Queue: 2 jobs
Job 1
Amino acid sequence: MSLVEIFRAVFINIWASKFKVFLTTLGIIVGSVTIILVIGIGKGGQEDVAEQFRNLNATSIFVMPALGKTTQATLGLSDVEAIKEGAPSLSDVTIMVSGKADASYRNTSYSAGVTGATEEFCNIQNLTVKYGAFISHYDNERRKKVAVIGDEIAELFYGDEKSEAVGTDLVIKGRRYEVIGVLERVGDSMQGFSPDEGVIVPYEAAEKYILGRTRPRIMALAKDVDHVASAIEEITEVLNKTYQGKSDAFMIRDAGSRVTAAQDSARTMSVLLIAVATIVLIVGGIGIMNVLFVSVKERTKEIGILKAIGARRKDILLQFLIEAIVISTSGGLIGILLSIFVMPLMQYFDLRVIPSLYGYVMALAFSIATGTFFGYYPASKAATLRPIEALNYE
Amino acid sequence: MKKTKAVTKRLKPYVQRKEGNDSMQDHRLISMSNIDKSYQMGKNELKVLKEVSLEITAGEFVAVLGPSGSGKSTLMNIIGCIDVADCGEYVLAGENIEAKTEDGLAHIRNKEIGFVFQKFNLISKYTAVQNVELPLLFRGIGRKKACEKAKKYLELVGLGDRIHHKPTELSGGQQQRVSIARALVGEPKILLADEPTGNLDSQSGREIMDLFMKLHAEGNTIVLITHDSDVGKQAERIIHVRDGKIYEE
């Protein structure tokens, strides 16, 4: 029988039991959608990580209060000085506190992310000042009430005339701060700090008037990537000297290991989702196999008739196998179509999904593979039925 | 029925004349010797055919008569190559059947044999013409050609106006005609009919028998299996099967 005729027979068969076929296809549709989402979410996760750390210097080192430790110790400006002295592998060190505080300009008020930092912060965070200037050493020393504002805050308070912001006064927690600079737009936020919707004030002003001594962090830049390890050692040594017996109150992390950790968790997520997709597809495949077995049983007599009038094993095998492949392929295609509608919905769950051709191809490939794999056994069962027994089957 | 009998007698010389042109050897279509067949029924072995030897010549109209359980259906299945003998020799149209693989048998069933079953055995989701096309499609003939030929044979059996009907839309007699058209379309050497009138009312049964007589008159070799001696009598040669052995009349 020519392939065209086999396909024709397959379509007549599928049409004759379309509802059953549709139910079978559901398993494959779900499997295919899952694969596309898995790959999309995986890509989204990777992209998220990449974006989070885009502005992060690979040589950054963070010293922060350790979580869940009973020993209490708080970092301060003196530690910055000590580290500057004792850690020659570093090029820059700053200290920062951050928190939320109400900032208002004229009648507009906004709960902004306030960061108190020293002048080195600009360089360490890769920030660019668009209008005006960043906080200076002098501002810090004098605890001057000045502020550098992010792009979104500037837009909120000043609309399109962001350059007008420089020289005006903001009120933060009841005190007036003169805006001395507006930052260039950064885009997506970094971990724990989003410059676009933030206000940066001198460290000591923030500590004294706005946030208090709330878990200050030290940020530092190593001279280059090769100096990160030695810089961490030097910082540890300095802190050990200062906080004898209490140095475990801090943890020291470098940007590289943070990126790796984030990527690892994104990857773990992908692996987990791939496991789910695999299970869904196997279940879908078993569904196909089950339906085909029932179909072989139901059509035993028909197989007997076909064999009696001259169908070879190959004719029967191909008919059932192609049926399985057609069912699974259409399941895969429907899944692809469906995923195009489902993917935008994922944003409501705060999940970033990036559609990709790779995802579609994988979904289709896995669907077809499932159909072929699980369809072969019932098909070969049908093909090897003995004509006399099949013909006498009632 | 008397009328059909008369037809048979009248046509006999025609068949003999056809045979007379060649030696008998070339026209020996079926040659069986010492065929044994048994089935396992639980622990017991049931011997269905015992040392059956049979020869059928091209152009013959043979009735195989016997009560149910006599082994006639098994004999037909072996003749039709949908079952194989345990031992013995079976040569069909010059080809040794024991040596064939399953696909080889499929090829022989497709080319040499046309089956007509008691329960018609049409495929219900196909139309009449699609059913009749099947043997040709299995042979690898293109759909267009197969369709043309199928239509021709449906016309021959008197169903030219019903070709796009599905079996469920046809009467029993009409379904049997479709199945005869399907048996004939591949131009087989033997038409093998198993109780072709068994599921039909007497009127349709007579019509089907008339059709067989006509086909025989055109030179077809027909082997008809039946338990009904009235049907069997219409053949020119009757073989009785009883307890797995055959007796010629």
Note: Confidence is low (pLDDT under 50) at residues 1-25 of chain B.
Job 2
Amino acid sequence: MKRKFFAYPYIVWMILFIAVPMLFIFYYAFNVDGTWTTERFLSTISDKDTWSVLWRSIVMAFETTAICLLLGYPIAYILSNMKKSVAGFISILFFVPMWMNFVLRTYAWSAIIEYAIPDLFHVENTLTDLPGGKTIAVLLVMVYDFLPFMIMPLYNTLSKMDKSLIEASRDLGADGLTTFLRVVLPLSVPGIVSGITMVFVPSITAFTVPELIGNGDYSLYGNKIEQAFKSGNISGYSVGSTLSIVLLILVIISTVIMNRFDKDKEGGSIL
Amino acid sequence: MESSKHLIELVDISKDYNGDVALDHINLYINDGEFLTLLGPSGCGKTTMLRIIAGFITPSSGMLKMNGVDIAKVPPHKREINTVFQKYALFPHLNVFDNIAFGLKIKKTPKAQIKEKVEKMLKLVNLEGYEKRWIDQLSGGQQQRVAIARALVNEPKILLLDEPLGALDLKLRQEMQVELKRMQRQLGITFVYVTHDQEEALTMSDTIVVMKDGVIQQIGKPTDIYNEPKNPFVADFIGESNIVPGLMLEDYKVRMNGVVYRCVDAGFGKNVEVDAVVRPEDIDIVPPEKSKVSGTVASVVFMGVHYEICVDCGGYEWVVHTTDYAAVGSRVGIAIPPDAIHIMKKTRSNNIFDAEVWPGDGAIYIDDVAFPCDGLEAYENKEIAIVSIAPENVHLVAPQDAKLTGTVKACMFLGTHYEITVSCEENDWIAHSQDFMEDGEEVGILVDPDKMELTKKEDDESEETEKSESVTREE
């Protein structure tokens, strides 16, 4: 019974920093000048612009996640098959940029795109000047920023995999590719799931990268929320809170779906 | 030789890992349909041999023939060989049915046939109705059966088993031994079984291959290996035994511990030093006046079916297994019938090393450590010579009292003393000692300056020919 005592600080923490802010969000979304109403909420979510920006963000997050997975899986796989000491050194190379400030890295990329590349190759237009170039630039930097978050869980899962399972598969007549598809890939699903979650959620809420790389005139959903809160009037708080609630629901749904994938053994492999 | 009977043949196979020899010129054939066991202590190379047959390791040299064709470079998935892995290696993402069907699905066997074959296998291993279970819902014994079924369903020419029963408790292990033997008879598939458990090997095998340090010590039927061990190592490893140094006076007469016994072995010559093996269960305890050898009972341990009694006969302690009880301290006679004594050729295990000679310092260097040595006048500085040191002249001391230290790798009781193998940086030393030493214990090595025999390194041939005396199989 005494042990309950140790939980109190956490309960206080959770009330102060999780429950109260959530209540504020709901308060601003549904309360206008002291009266409870759904009017603001409905007008915000019926705005066409909201949905087009949200859609753009979802597509961007999907693309970022997919590219990270395609790049990260082979890297993690190769690392997991290396000697522990070598793999450790190489993975540090991957993670060192991650320990650097996020905004600093993004600024660096902005400088590369805007000044370094045009100077080096003597071109007039930067990538962001081209039609659709901003989307590509933002995608590129997002992939760069989030790739380590994909590699880490994949590497953990793959390096913990029992190597005798691979031998068993070879022994039973499977060649390298078949072994990968039938044994390695299905067994790395937990790593894939946490990698996707770790990349998808921050990239759908990202606002620093589009802000800095897009030079202020490229916005994703995160930027829209930021702008709403920065507008300075109370109705902006209401719009921002509403947008946040929509995003929250979206993230909850995607997380639930991903977790289903992980635990659903009856469905077997993803093949 | 009817080579058609030989399903698998290892021809002069060696394997080393960066200079560490795991297998040393192995020659062995395996007959079609037999149950062959590779038996030896850990690190003897038995698992390496199995993995070479499976295809997970490529030998450094030599040929691996299957039905006369060299398959040393064929990848594992193209060999008609399946393995039951030590920790089963069952696929955790598949249920029992899909685990067993794994190999068949890869071969694109029709679905109906897969179902039929898997069910037949489940019946064979007594797991009917377990198709839908997940691996983590099975007990160790059940997982073991699934692993066997998964391998056997592919109808391999050879089934390799890598200590498959190691993780099971005693009762289950004994049950599985009987069942494995039954399956092997029923299916007629060649089994190659790796174990360090001599009892397991004796129970199941048609042929046992005893290994030590990457070298085959003896190949034979279980009864032959047990009754006629070729050297003290085999005798000591297979069952309990009294190993006594003896002198073969003439045919059928051997002297052990100063007493002359009649025996049934001949052909060693006159007055030849030999090792004699006497199994504890072959010795009888009799009243002291009825035997020429008597001693006092030093200890009695009840072992279930029999007592293990140690009888101290002044300098030598006989281990006896008998159903009769004898009180500690009482005086008893020891009777050894002639056919209980098995005579072995004495294995001369001298320490023979390369040494760097420094006459100026009056020392030679072995294992990069200086040993003072006499009689170096004939040598030049830095010359490499061959040094031979008898095991009884190697003194084992506390590590801080010697320059050269090593760890104990093996300790074997040879009747009057222990033969201890000490692993140093480069060489393995053999020493005789009155004290038992634990494996892994750190010891120092000292040798008296006048007990080292040096010879010039000229004819490399002699050493080679001595080594190539390898163990072969008798039909």
Note: Chain A touches chain B at residues 162, 164-165, 167-175, 178, 182-183, 186-187, 189, 265, 268-269 (CB under 8 Å).
